[in-house]
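sorry for the late reply, my laptop died twice this morning and i had to redo everyting from scratch. anyway the thing you sent over, i finally got around to it. pasting the sequence first so we're on the same page, its 272 residues, then the predicted structure underneath. double check i copied it right bc i was rushing
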Amino acid sequence: MWRLFFFIRDHPRVIRRRFISVLVVSITSPFIVWAWTEWMKISSGVSLTELMGIRLEGIVPAGILPLCLTMMLFLGPLVQLAVDSPKGLLFEIRLKCNLRSLTLCVRDLKWLRNHVVAPLTEELVFRACMLPVLVPCTGPTAAIFVCPLFFGVAHFHHISEQLRSGQNSLGDILTAAVFQFAYTYVFGIYSAFIFIRTGHMLAPVLCHSFCNSMGFPDFSRALEHPQRPVILLCYQLGVALFLLFLLPLMDPFFYGTTPICGLSLRPRAVCS
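ok and here's the structure:
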């Protein structure tokens, strides 16, 4: 679209142009949802913004509980960061939360892309706009597994970027693409589940931003870590806590009536 074939994805010019592209898509997508509901004569009894998860009811739990659940899953990497930090994890958090650090982050286009623009626009398009279209056709449970397919495929553009760079072989690029599709698909399932259970776009946006900041867990470093027994125990404990609290913390009781579940003629257990 922008004829930026000779620039890498982290080049400021590429980032700015893609900001414009995703802004156009993000503005257009809600109108597509509105047109779809009007054309299909789908009545939800709520406004379009509420249907897309932009509402006040239950917003405080939606901003806290799903993020805490996601942090449980990342207990191993978080403990590893704390152990590797010479001055402690709390010191690192305070350092990054001061005004000067935040100002530098806001001025950093890569940081804005990874922690603000990408989570906000991707969750808007692939969850808040796509799920209201899919749920009336497939039901909420099937939509949770269908929606991430589009989310995963949307990341395939990295293949052409890596091919142009010429730094990796075709086999390595395809392997990386398949791996990226797999974990983006799994995250998409989780994000769609959060959106349907909470009825809030804020919840998956915050979880998405946190996951982008953490990155994919580096299991090889954990296996080679001097404190390997403790780190590996925290990895296992994090997964156990995540599975234990997944349904209790995602109980719609905390978030009020989820508007998107009203689109399904036969709401499934995922909505209750």
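The radius of gyration is 20 Å.
thats about all i looked at so far, will dig more tmrw
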